[in-house]
Amino acid sequence: MPVLPVSGLGWFGTAAHRDVRLVRMSETAKRLVTAVILVAAGSGQRLGYGMPKAAVPLGGEPILMHALRGIVAAGISSQVCIALPAGDDGLRRLCEDFREELADGGPLLTIVDGGATRADSVRAGLEALMEGTEAVMVHDAARALTPESVFHRVVDALAAGAEAVIPAIPVVDTVKTVAATTGEGSVLAPEVVTGTAPREDLRAVQTPQGFRFRTLQRAHQAARTLEPRQAAAVTDDAMLVEMTGTAVHVVRGSTQSLKITTPLDLILAEGLLEGPLGARWVEG
Questions:
Q1: Residue range 71-86: average pLDDT?
Q2: Per the CB 3.0–4.6 Å rule, which of 15, 126, 177, 241 could disulfide with 70?
Q3: How many CA atoms lie within 13 A of 112 on its CB side?
Q4: How far apart are CA 98 and CA 54, in angstroms?
C-alpha cells in the first residue's frame, strides 16, 4: 500500500458546538460530488450503557450528533447517509430534527437501516446515494471528534485522482506477532512472540475513508463472494478495496480522531471537550 509521509501530528480543533447553519461547501467538494456514509448502527455493548453507541451521551449530546455536526461543518458532502440501528425511533428522530435544523443550508440527509455487520450497513448506504455521486467517504460515528481538516485531506486526495484514501497516524507502541503456546510453554504464558513488526512501516488507520464511488461499489460486490471466515476477517472498507488490487493512499490523520469503543475512550473524548483548552485545540 503506498504510504504518504506522516508528520507534524498534534491535537486538532474540536468538533463540538459548531454552528452548522454557517457551513459553506469547500472548493474541492464543489468540483467532486461527494457523499458521506455515516455508520452508526453499532450496539455499543463494550461501553456498557445499555443503548446503541450512537445514542451514548458525550458532553451532554449523543455521540451521533457530534459526528453529524463535524461532517456538515467540514463542507465536503452533497449528501450524508446515516446507517442507524434498525427500528431505533429515537435516533431517527434526532436525525430528522437535525435535518430540519439544516433546512436548505447543508447536505441532503438520508436515513437507512443498518445491517447485521458494518459491511451490510455500508452497502445499505451505497444503495441510497443519489445519482451522480462521484466519491464516497465512509465514516464511523464512533470517531465523533474527527477534525474538519482530516475530511479535507481525504477529499483533496480523491479530487487529485486517488481511487482510495485513508487517514492514519504513526503507531507509537511496539507491535509484535504472537502464537499460542503449546506443550510445556503453555504453563509459562498463553502466548509466545513470533516476530516484531517494523514500527516505521505501521500506521493506525482511521476514518473517514474515501473512495471513488465505482471503486467502493465494486469492492463490496466482490465481497459478497467471500467465505464467512474471510468476510469476518475484513475490518474496514479499505481492506475490501485492497483485495481488488486497487492502491489505497494514506494521508495524515489526527490523534483527536479516536474511536469511542470502551468506557476509557469515552472519558478521553469527554476530556477533549471539557479540558483546559476546550475548543482551542489546534493542529500541531
A1: 96
A2: 15
A3: 21
A4: 14
- Lookup: cell for 10: 498534534
Amino acid at 77: S
Mean pLDDT of 96-117: 91
Can you tell me whether residue 140 is helix, strand or coil?
A: strand
Secondary structure (DSSP) of 77-122: -SEEEEEE-TT-HHHHHHHHHHHHHHTTSS-EEEEEE--SSHHHHH
Residue 227, exposed/middle/buried by CB under 10 A (0-12, 13-18, 19+)? Answer: exposed
What residues contact residue 202 under an 8 Å CB cut-off, 6+ apart? 170, 171, 175
Residue 11, burial from CB neighbour count under 10 angstroms (0-12, 13-18, 19+): middle
In DSSP terms, which residues pair with 169 in a beta bridge? 204
The CA-based dihedral angle spanning residues 13, 18, 20, 25, taken in that order and rounded to the nearest 10 degrees: -10
What lies within 8 Å, CB to CB, of 82 at 6+ separation is 38, 40, 64, 68, 95, 109, 110, 111, 112
Element (H, E) at 66: helix 63-74
CA atoms within 13 A on the CB side of 175: 11
pTM, to two decimals? 0.86
* Per-residue model confidence as pLDDT tens digits over 109-136: 999 999 999 999 999 999 999 999 999 9
CA distance 205 to 137: 14
pLDDT category, 2, cuts 50, 70, 90? very low
* Radius of gyration from C-alpha coordinates of the chain: 19
Inter-residue contact 33 to 134 (CB < 8 Å): yes
Architecture of domain 20-170+203-280: Alpha-Beta Complex (3.90)
**Cα–Cα distance, 50 to 56 (Å, whole number):** 9
